[in-house]
Structures are given as structure tokens and as C-alpha cells.
Amino acid sequence: MPAELGNSEALKKFLLVVNDSYNAYERDSELAGRAFKISEEEYIRVNEALKTGNELKKISISKIKETIKTLGIDEVDPGNEDLLDVVRYLEQHVVKQKETEVEFATTANRLTSLIINLQEGILVEDDTRHIVLTNLSFCELFNIPANPQDLTGSDCSQSAEQVKHLFKYPEAFAQKIGVLVSEKKLVTGEELELADGRFFERDYIPIYLNGEYKGHLWKYKDITLRKNSVKAIEQSELTNRLIMNSALDAIITMDNTGLISFWNPQAEKIFGWAAKEVVGKRLSEVIIPHEYREAHERGMERYKKAGGGAVLNRLIEVIALHRDGRVFPVELSILPVKQNETEFFCSFIRDISERRSAEEKLKASEQMWQFALEGAGDGVWEYNFITKEVFFSKQYKKMLGYEDEEFANNPAEWMDRIHPDELDIIYKVDQEYLEKKITSHQREYRMKHKDGSYRWILDRGYDY
User: The whole model's pTM is what?
Assistant: First the structure.
């Protein structure tokens, strides 16, 4: 610089100002560089912290999802990384879980109430044989003077010994309890006879959860009335069977399809078939002649459709078939029977071969007797003192001028024809017969002819 300027105060001040400006600039530049460096380091640190936080968030969400899965809750959307959505999802399932628990508790209460109010005796024991639940019916059946609720938690390991005296076979009862508890197998419908004559039905139901034994349930029911009813029915059936087996008639029952279900000993005797040979066969195959089988089957079909038949509830005479092939007359009555929902037919059959033969012989005898009476020329009459029935032969009626159809077989009309003066003779002889004083007689009296005149009659008779 020129010498004259070197000592200039004004210039010196200017240079100092310039120098201070440079110094201030350099100082500010250094401060700005240091501040930027510090900011950059802080950014890197914050960024690293954010990255670490994000990883921790991902890990946390992943762990939460794994925990949700182990709780049995449906898995959250694997692509959803929003923690708030996961929390909301959990909140929804917590609400559902609470609702399920409430519903489960309600159901459990209902089942408990149902068990308590059952008419059967119920006892639920856990795997250590302590009471979980029982009801009033159980206490009443076993004469336990306690409130069922107060028995909860009681030890039942010795209960069989305490109540075995109630049963007809006490030791067998106690022993079977031990066997059932030991084997842990379902047993239902077991019948137990008590010392006082009653009967219980017992069910043993083991309780398993996820394959693990948790206890068991006992159910006892008083079936005395049912047993007595069944016994009475069995006794009645036995009585009926004995009656049917000892009957003089053949008794055959068949179902509504025509298959034989019962065949009594008299049927074996009449038809020649043993019961074991015919039970389960069609009736038409066994005792009905071939020419009548089709009609029989049609009758069965009509009954199925219309519920009636021409031969039902009637006594009829038909031809039957014996095992040896011969046919013979029988008297038949078929009754449809309904028992509960079961329908069957009961047939009563009597062999009338001997009766038919006797009737034919009697008919032949009567024809010969009638022929003899008419040929002898004498009038014949018969009077039954017990039934008051009377018979007059055609010759007797002709003797008084009447045809057969004009003269009624009436004792009163016969007495009206006796002459009034001879009525005492009639009364006297009849009285002597009634008093067994005579067994035969001979008397004469007058009777009115059809023409109005009286004819003398010689009357001879005997008691037989």
C-alpha cells in the first residue's frame, strides 16, 4: 500500500472491519460445518433407531400372531403388519371368547338343572371317586337323609359297602361296583334286585375328555312296576299258553301275512304235523286242500286292504287237509286279534268227522224210523216233560183228518182237541210219569177230528 495510506486511521478501521468480516465468516462457516456434521450424525442415529424399532415391531407382531395361534384362535392375515388391526382382531376374539364362556356356563347350568330334576337317581363322581353332582332322586332311592348339594366333594370309595345291605345279593352288588370302576367300560340296562322285592336298573357311564378318563356317571331307576307288569304279562301268556295247549280244539295263530306262529298239541293230533314242522309256513300250504288255497289267499288280501272278511268272526264248516293227504270236515272259527301295534289271527278248529258220521247215521236211522212209522199205520207222538216239546207223526195227524203242515207240534193245541170229559185221564197219567210212579201206560180217550166229530183213541206209551 502507498506509505501515505499506511498511516491512515480510516483505512486501518476499514481493514479491521474487513478482517473481522472474514474472521466472522470463517467462524460461522466452521460452526455451520460442525452443526451439519452433528445433524448428520443425529439423523443417522435416529434412522438406525427407527429401523431397530420397526424390526422390533415386526418381531412383536409375529410373536403376537404365534401366541394367538397357540390359543386356538383363527390365524390373523399373515400379510397384515398393522399392530392396531392385530389388537382390534384380538379384541374381537376376546369378546367372542367371553360370549362362548357365558353360553357354555348357561348350557352347563341347564344340564346341571336337568340332572338334578331327573326322576332317575344320578351320581357323578370324578376320577378320585369324589362326588361332583347328585340329585334328590338318588338320595331317595338309597335312603340317604341329606341334601344332594351337601354331598358334593364327599368320598364315595366306601359307598358300596354302606348301601349293599339294601340289595338281595349284597356282596355281589359291592363286588360289581369295584369291577365297573376298575374296567371303566360302558354298561347299561343292568337289573338289580333289592332285599325288599324292588328292582333297580343301573347304567354305568365312564366320562372321557380328549381320551383322558375324568370320572363316571351312575344312573339308577326304580323299575319295580315295569318288572311286575312284565311278570304279570308273562304269567298271563303262560296261563294262556297252558290253556291253549290243553284245549280240545286245535288252536292255530298266524300273522297278517298268513304265516303260522303257534300250533297247539291238539292241532298236531288233528292234522298230523308237529309244531316245529309248520311254524313259519303259510297256513294254506299245510291244512287247506289245493282247490281252496287260492280262495284263502284272496281272502287274506281282501282283509289287508279292507280290514274285513267273509269268514271272520263266524263258525263255519270247511274241508281240511291231513298230513297223510286225506281230507276231512272241520268246524272253523277265525278271530282277528290286535295286541298293541301287532295284528294276528287266531283259529279254533274242531274235527267234526265223528259228528258228521253220527249225524249221517242218525239221519238214516230217522228216515228208516219215519218209514217204519208210516208203514205201520199207527200214529206216533212224543212229549218231552222237561223242554215241553212235542212231536206228532204224519200218520197221527192223518188219523185226525189233518195234513202234516196243518197240525202244529204244539202241546196246548193238542190238549184243546181232547174231549173235556177225558182231560182228567190225561192229567193223571202225566202226573204219575212226573212222580216216577209209572214207566208205561195204556189209556183211551176221545179227540176232536178235523170234521168236528170226536174219535176214540187207544193211547199206549212208555218212559225212556
Answer: 0.39
